[in-house]
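<discrete_fold_record>
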Amino acid sequence: MPKTNLQPVWPDMTPQDLSPEQMALAALRAEIDSVDDQLLALFQRRLDIAARVGLAKDAPHGPHTKLRPDREQTVLSRMLARAEPGYADAVEGLWREIVGWGLARQGQLQVQVWAPTDPTRAFDGARHRFGAAAAIRMVRDPQAALAFAAEGRGVAVLAINTDDPWWLGLRRDWSSLSVFDGFGQTGGQPTSLAVGKIDPAALPRGRSVIVTAGGDAGDGGGARRWGLNTHHGWTLALTDAALTPGDAEGCVGAIG
């Protein structure tokens, strides 16, 4: 083994001074260093490309945010399909961070989180979803967070397991906003929703989020519904039905 590979591990020793175990460890550490060098070069290359994407013709523009949940969903699904099953959680966490830092090359994402009950769950869900590159802070007023998102300044993450029916405004006051993700799952259902000025064409593929009058029963067409919250005869729910945001069915977004 060349002495140069040993110096970072045992700088004052020669191969003749090392035990077989130390030699094996030095070889593994040298291999890790080589892989790290390759990862660094590829990561920086990806960041450069992400910055160019922000300037491309098909990048988000106009009144919508730069977020493309559909693209993020495609990237993550592709990586998870290629990953070894035992590494799936690690791969998902890593790619969330990679995508987040790539997005930051187009400007830091601002996230406001409102969760009067169990705020840690909502904050951790937002951090996992948007990564360390995002600027995330807790706020005390869901309407202020919605106004912040409606101005296109960032996104809001709002708890739905509360007595505040802020979600009713998605059909009226905040109709320019769309739900594009949900996390903090309890019993398989989200406890917080991510809301922003998302291009409807960029929403993820998955269950639609609806705000409708009535309960959470199916519509008779075979599409199932899962109720998330209710208020004075109105229901926030998920559905398998293929709906378009803003249509007559009360669709206000989608969760991948």
In short: The chain has two domains: 1-53, 54-255. Residues 11 and 249 are 69 Å apart (CA to CA).
